[in-house]
Amino acid sequence: MAERNTRLQRKDVSLSNKMIISISGTPGAGKSTIAKMIAEELRLKRYYMGGIIRKMAQEKGMTLDEFYGQDENVDKEIDDYLVQLGKEEDNFIVEGRTAFHFIPHSIKLYLDVNLKEGANRIFEEMKQENRRNERKYHDADEALEVINKRLAKEAEQYGKLYNLDVHDKNHYDFVLNTTVLTVNEVKEKLLNFIRQYNE
């Protein structure tokens, strides 16, 4: 099944209403690309937690994996930031693994993808430019191996910190598998859901 909507009974709502949208999902599912498009479409401010962490790593001259290995408190700092963000601001979209949990009044979106396809996307992106501040992979298989290790580490870390599985799709209002969809198809499906979402 390509998508799952857990709020089918909600009525149409004007996009002029205040809203917070959180996006989580599988690596390579297209979260950042789609968040940028939705932020522009709905004129929302965009927060990218991964970008904040990557900037911190860059400032120390490290790759993302090296940075995580050095400082296990990074996620806790980001999570505290999310809590404050949800309390103090409105009308924004935020990308982050735990954003749905720490901003519970957000519209919670999850983008899924076949892990092999996700690895292919990440590998192709890195061949063009290392914008993700991660080490270059020799091939998509190596990217897939790193993704699997990262998912296992996340499961252990978030389970230990919060007894939370961020990839449990029951946490989200709308789940969409992007494996065989174009970027525009993903954007339209998400916008259609947001339009139907009632606060």
Written description of the protein model:
It is a single chain. It contains eight helices and six strands; from the N terminus they run E-E-H-E-H-H-H-E-H-E-H-H-E-H. It is an alpha/beta fold and 199 residues long. It has one domain (3-113, 168-196): Rossmann fold (3-Layer(aba) Sandwich). The chain is globular, with a radius of gyration of 17 Å. The two termini are 26 Å apart. Mean pLDDT is 85; it is low at 7-16.
Provide a concise account of the structure shown.
This protein is of the alpha/beta class and 199 residues long. It has helices at 31-42, 49-59, 64-70, 74-88, 99-102, 115-128, 140-162, 183-196; strands at 3-5, 20-25, 45-48, 92-95, 107-112, 174-177.
Order of the strands making up the biggest sheet: 1-6-5-2-4-3
The separation of the N and C termini measures: 26 Å
* CATH level-four homologous superfamily name: P-loop containing nucleotide triphosphate hydrolases
In terms of structural class, how would the helical and strand content be classed? alpha/beta
Helix content: 40-55%
CATH fold description: Rossmann fold
Shape: globular
Number of domains: 1
CATH class: Alpha Beta
What CATH architecture would you give? Answer: 3-Layer(aba) Sandwich
The low-confidence parts are: 7-16
Q: Please report which band the strand proportion falls in: under 5%, 5-15%, 15-25%, 25-35%, 35-45% or over 45%.
A: 5-15%
Number of discrete helical segments: 8
H/E element order: EEHEHHHEHEHHEH
